Amino acid sequence: MGGPTPREQCAFEAGIKLGAVFHQFVGTPVSEASRVSLEEAMRRALLNQPYVREARVCINREKLRLASENPFGYTSLSPEMLEVEVVVECTGVRCTGKLAYRDGYPLMWLEFEE
Fold first, then answer.
1. What sign has the CA pseudo-torsion 4, 8, 10, 14?
2. Across the 114 residues of the chain, what is the mean pLDDT of every consecutive 10-residue run?
3. Within a domain: 17
4. Would you say the pTM of this structure is higher than 0.70?
5. Tally of domains within the chain
6. Is 75 a domain residue?
7. Residues 99, 24: contact at Cβ < 8 Å?
8. Any domain includes 1
9. What local confidence, expressed as pLDDT, does residue 74 receive?
10. pLDDT of amino acid 1
11. 85-94: string of b/e by CB count within 10 Å (b at 16+)?
12. How far apart are CA 50 and CA 34, in angstroms?
């Protein structure tokens, strides 16, 4: 029995990266004042991992503002606020893993460079 194909290995690596960033950071306290530093921390966490070539993290400012309208001025990071992209390259294959809140759910998908 053979191992995974190069495309399967790349897909696995991208999926692991998105799952890790999602489950590690959802629930983190965040405010407008800490948004940029949290985005950067998440991006750097992704870049630490093997095979990651690029990473982008965006916390939606409007959703953060609405969720932070309370006496304390902060909220917990929620899936609705996140947009993440991670470019993975391994075994000669390159793909981009994406995470965004769509249709009431935090969807993750892959786009391969052909």
1. negative
2. 92 96 97 98 97 98 97 97 97 96 96 87
3. yes
4. yes
5. 1
6. yes
7. no
8. no
9. 97
10. 76
11. bbbbbbeebb
12. 27
- HEC states along the chain? CCCCCHHHHHHHHHHHHHHHHHHHHCCCEECHHHHHHHHHHHHHHHHCCCCEEEEEEEECHHHHHHHCCCCCCCEECCHHHEEEEEEEEECCEEEEEEEEEECCEEEEEEEECC
Q: Tell me what pLDDT residue 2 has.
A: 87
pLDDT at 113: 84
Shortest CA distance to 37 belongs to which of 47, 29, 48, 27? Answer: 29
Domain of 20, CATH number, reads 3.30.1300.20
Considering only CA atoms, which of 82, 101, 87, 102 is closest in space to residue 10? 87
Q: Whole domain around residue 64: which residue ranges?
A: 6-112
Q: Amino acid identity, residue 84?
A: V
* 94 assigned to some structural domain: yes
